[in-house]
Amino acid sequence: MAGTLMTGLDCFRIPSGVEFQRWQGDGEWVIYHSGTGETMRLSEAAIAVLNLLAESGRLDKTAIKQALNALVDAPVSDHELQTAVNELTRVLLSHECIEQVSCG
Length: 104
Description:
This protein is of the alpha+beta class. The protein contains three helices and six strands, in the order ββββαβααβ. It has a domain at about 10-15 and about 45-100. The strands form two sheets. It has a three-stranded antiparallel beta sheet with strand order 5-1-6. Strands 2-3-4 form a three-stranded antiparallel beta sheet, with no helix packed on it. It is globular.
């Protein structure tokens, strides 16, 4: 179910058959979601996670947290990073940009 975090599914991937096209418009990056036909403005962090998922195939929350940590210039607490990861994955799930899968 899109937008719902399910227990036992600890990794994320881009759904099969979904591709993203990216272009810059009005000073920000815009994404076209081929699966839903939706055009979205996503944060730099969301785009970075989608790029990593496209390269690696799947990521767990620890890898996403490390990627977000690499984007920030100042030290961020582990709690703040975890909150950001949870919110980012929630938003990407709700827009069907990612899906949860088993890490195994």
